[in-house]
Every structure is written in structure tokens, then in C-alpha cells.
Design a protein that fits this description.
Largest interface: A-B, 25 and 19 residues
CATH class of the largest domain in chain A: Alpha Beta
Strand order of the largest sheet of chain A: 2-8-7-6-5-3-4
Helix content of chain B: 25-40%
CATH class of chain B: Alpha Beta
Order of helices and strands of chain A: EHHEHEHEHEHEEEHHEEHEHEH
Shape of chain A: globular
Number of helices of chain B: 2
Strand content of chain B: 25-35%
Strand content of chain A: 5-15%
Largest sheet of chain A: 7 strands, mixed
Number of domains of chain B: 1
CATH topology of chain B: Alpha-Beta Plaits
Radius of gyration of chain B: 11 Å
Largest sheet of chain B: 4 strands, antiparallel
Distance between the termini of chain B: 12 Å
Strand order of the largest sheet of chain B: 2-3-1-4
CATH architecture of chain B: 2-Layer Sandwich
Structural class of chain B: alpha+beta
CATH superfamily of the largest domain in chain A: Type I PLP-dependent aspartate aminotransferase-like (Major domain)
Shape of chain B: globular
Number of domains of chain A: 2
Number of strands of chain B: 4
Oligomer: heterodimer
């Protein structure tokens, strides 16, 4: 592996990528080099067809129609487009304290205007009823949307998405889900989960390259745009097209990234989502149990179970800041992330703002042997 | 093959139409609309091997946002 580091920072971006992704990137540069949807020559058309095929595979994967899949450049961009589109005319939104800054900052920026506001509600680990009650009690007459993460990038807690979708629709609200950590790890059926807008990164659990993201709108839903520009369609008009995906895909689509995403998706399907999730959870549980039982280490999770948690384990080493700890781990050959993970409210709730947390996040390529080595290294570092 | 092109609102819909028609047993190919035939600027459509009007009707019934038939 690169730099001889064992990589456990897959919640930030997965690494390494499957070999098929590397090949797809090379092929995209050498074969699919045209600008899709802009010309009629063979290279442009071939590129457009490749993009369509990947779009179609993604639509099947998330149980939606092909034109509803919009390629963006990361999950943050998708969330900005969704949040600012839905709240364009003002209004209130409910989110959770486990949300990432990609949700919190757009909401906070909007809240600078008198017509906008938001409420961040607690998430109670192991008590979905309490979590749902918190969301429901925050709904106001001017609430337009529930926006929340599918699962935390800090403590791995999975939110009751299906129940939240039903809650949102019962109150006539739109439901926007940040699936940055869950896409490619948990099955996501937009219809079944009542999701109106699904936002995710392409470079994490979907195994595409960085610079890829998705915003997927429920069929029939339309929102104002954040970006306007050339789409290669209806060019005579100055108005942005109403039809999808063109409405939200101004400028050249990143075909290299799209090709990588297609290869990543095929890798996922060949291994099986459930197989990957169970593998990552087995490794995560092993580390979590060690952290729970080691006197020099504290973990933020009371429990850590399949179906209620994502494969993300955050912990602290007594007397050492998380940033310093991950530097020491890096020197010993392990890549983990320290700090606040762009989730400030989650850290406030857990009381870990000052020192942050060390985050472990495996991938389909992580091995039990490498987790054993990490556990041994942590034992040595803590003297336990 | 007919030289007529069934216009669709976007290249995505054109490829979707091509795939849908193939499932119905109708061969069609995505084409960029020639400059002289454009009425709304850039655009794509499908050229059908067979009865263009019948294919257009099938697409319309299936909910495809088809435009005019040109050529």
C-alpha cells in the first residue's frame, strides 16, 4: 500500500479503489474523452452513452428513474443544491445534531436571513422513539423540510430514516437525506424510505474517485436551481431547462468521475452490499470492543451493533489529543482521522470538542490482520 | 431506416427512449439534431428503424417527453 500505511480513513474517502475503478479512469481518459451532450460526433456520443449507462445503473441501485439522478462534484455540493433549493423562498428546517457541516453550514448561512431558520435536534443512541419525538416536536408551521444524515460520520449511529420519512410526509414536509456515509454500505430504496432528495458522495462507499457526488430527486419534484448554465439542450432559451437531469447539470459533466463511479458500483454489486457491510462491521466491532475494555481508551458508543450502527468507531486516548494521537499512529503505519470530523454539534453533545476523537473507518479491502496490528499498536501506545 | 428524428428534451431522454424502444423490439439510435432542423437550439432525438410515427406514439403513451418529428 502507498507509503506503507494501513488505511482506516474510509469515511473520508475510500482508499484503495478497486482495480476496476483505476481501469475505468484510464479508459475514460483514453476512450470517453468527448464532451457529452454537446456534439454529435462519435467520441461525444460514446461518452454520453457511457454516462447514461452509469446513470441508469445508479437509478436502479437507488430505486428511481434514470433522469432523476444528477451528477455533482461532491456530497456538499449536492446538499447545498438541495437545501438552498427547497428553502429558496424562506422557511424552517429540522436537522440533527449528528449532522455534518455540509448540512449545518448551508442551514446556518440561510439562517442569516430573517425568513430562514433551523433547529438541530438530539439523536438518542438506542432509542429511536425519543429521536423521532425530538424531530416531531421541532416541526413548526413554517417548517419546510427535514434534513438529516442517514448515519453519523462520528459515532456511526444510524438514524431511523424510514420513520423520519413517514414523519416528514405526514406533516407535508420534504425529506432530504445525507447518505455520504451510508451509500454503498446500506441498501437505500428512495421510494420505500420516502426520501425526496438523496445526496451522497461518489468517492466514499460507492468507490468512485474524488470529485464525484450525486443528488437524486424524487420523480415529480422540482426545486429552484443553485447553478445555471449550458446544458447542451434547449440552447436557444435563456431560461434554465425544467427537465432533469439537465436542470441541475450545468457545465460539462465530469465523465472521468462518472466512469469511475460506474466501476465502483459494479464492484459493490459483485461483492454484495450486505457482505461488505458485515465485513466492515465485524472489523469495527473488534476495535470497539478493544476500546471499550482498554482502560486508557474511551469510546463514545454505549453499544455497537449491526443494523443500528455504521462501521465507524471513534475513540479517545487518555491524556492525548486526537490530532496528536493520529500523528503518532501515522508514524506507526496507520492512517486514521483525528479532530472534529466537520460535525461540531455531535462533538458538543459528546463533550469531545476540546480534544476531538480518533476515527477508525474500514473498507471492503481492510483485513482483520491489520485491525489486530492496530489494536496491538494502541495497546503499546497506552501501555495497557 | 427512416431519416426522421423523434425529438426528445435531452440526451438522457434520448438514450432512455432508445433503451425503452429496444425492450419493445424497436431498433432506434440516438442522434444529434442537425443544425438546419433545430428549432430550440441544441437537441437530441432518436431515429427509428421502422415506423417512426408508431414509435413516437408508443413513446408518448409511455410518458416520454417527445417533441416534434423532424426530417
Amino acid at each position: 500500500m502507498c507509503f506503507n500505511l494501513v488505511y482506516f480513513d474510509n469515511a473520508a474517502t475510500t482508499f484503495p479503489k478497486p482495480a476496476a475503478v483505476t481501469r475505468a479512469v484510464q479508459q475514460a481518459v483514453t476512450v470517453y474523452g468527448g464532451n457529452a451532450g454537446r456534439s454529435g460526433h462519435a467520441i461525444s456520443m460514446k461518452t454520453a452513452q457511457m454516462i447514461f449507462e452509469v446513470r441508469r445503473e445508479l437509478a436502479d441501485f437507488f430505486h428511481t428513474d434514470v433522469e432523476q439522478v444528477i451528477f455533482t462534484y461532491n456530497c456538499t455540493m449536492s446538499l447545498n443544491m438541495a437545501i438552498k433549493g427547497v428553502l429558496a423562498g424562506g422557511g424552517h428546517a429540522v436537522c440533527s445534531i449528528l449532522d455534518h457541516n455540509s448540512v449545518l453550514r448551508p442551514l446556518h448561512a440561510l439562517a442569516g436571513h430573517p425568513s430562514h431558520s433551523f433547529t438541530a435536534v438530539p439523536v438518542y443512541e438506542g432509542d429511536e422513539e425519543a429521536t423521532l419525538k425530538g424531530f416531531e416536536s421541532a416541526i413548526r408551521p413554517d417548517t419546510k423540510a427535514i434534513v438529516c444524515t442517514h448515519g453519523s460520520n462520528v459515532n456511526g449511529v444510524i438514524l431511523p430514516i424510514k420513520a423520519l420519512g413517514e414523519l416528514a410526509h405526514r406533516h407535508g414536509l420534504l425529506f432530504i437525506v445525507d447518505a455520504a456515509q451510508s451509500a454503498g454500505v446500506l441498501p437505500i430504496d428512495m421510494d420505500r424510505l420516502r426520501i425526496d432528495i438523496l445526496c451522497t458522495a461518489g468517492h466514499k462507499g460507492l468507490y468512485g474517485i474524488t470529485g464525484t457526488g450525486l443528488m437524486i430527486l424524487r420523480s415529480g419534484l422540482t426545486i429552484p436551481t443553485l447553478l445555471e448554465g449550458g446544458t447542451g439542450s434547449a440552447s436557444i432559451r435563456l431560461d434554465q431547462p425544467e427537465f432533469l437531469p439537465d436542470r441541475f447539470e450545468s457545465g460539462t459533466v465530469g465523465s472521468v468521475g462518472v466512469a469511475s463511479l460506474g466501476a465502483g458500483l459494479r464492484f459493490l454489486k459483485s461483492r454484495g452490499l450486505q457482505t461488505i457491510y458485515r465485513h466492515e462491521m465485524r472489523l469495527s466491532k473488534k476495535l470497539w470492543r478493544f476500546c471499550r475494555d482498554c482502560s486508557g481508551i474511551s469510546t463514545v458508543n454505549k453499544t455497537f451493533e449491526t443494523d443500528t450502527h455504521l462501521p465507524v468507531v471513534s475513540f479517545a486516548i487518555e491524556g492525548v489529543s486526537s490530532v496528536e494521537a493520529v500523528e503518532r499512529l501515522s508514524e506507526r503505519g496507520f492512517a486514521l482521522r483525528g479532530g472534529l470530523h466537520c460535525a461540531p454539534l455531535a462533538h458538543q453533545m459528546m463533550g469531545t470538542t476540546e480534544n476531538g476523537l480518533i476515527r477508525f473507518s474500514p473498507s471492503a479491502f481492510s483485513t482483520e490482520e491489520s485491525v489486530d496490528r492496530l489494536i496491538y499498536t494502541l495497546s503499546v501506545m497506552t501501555g495497557k | 431506416m427512416s431519416k426522421q428524428i423523434i425529438m426528445l428534451s435531452s440526451i438522457t431522454y434520448a438514450y432512455k427512449a432508445e433503451a425503452w424502444l429496444a425492450k419493445q423490439g424497436v431498433k432506434a439510435y440516438v442522434h444529434r439534431v442537425p443544425q438546419q432542423l433545430r428549432t430550440h437550439g441544441c437537441g437530441y432525438g432518436v431515429q427509428v428503424k421502422g415506423d417512426t410515427l408508431a414509435a413516437a406514439s408508443m413513446l408518448q403513451s409511455a410518458g416520454f417527453p417527445i417533441g416534434e418529428i423532424i426530417g
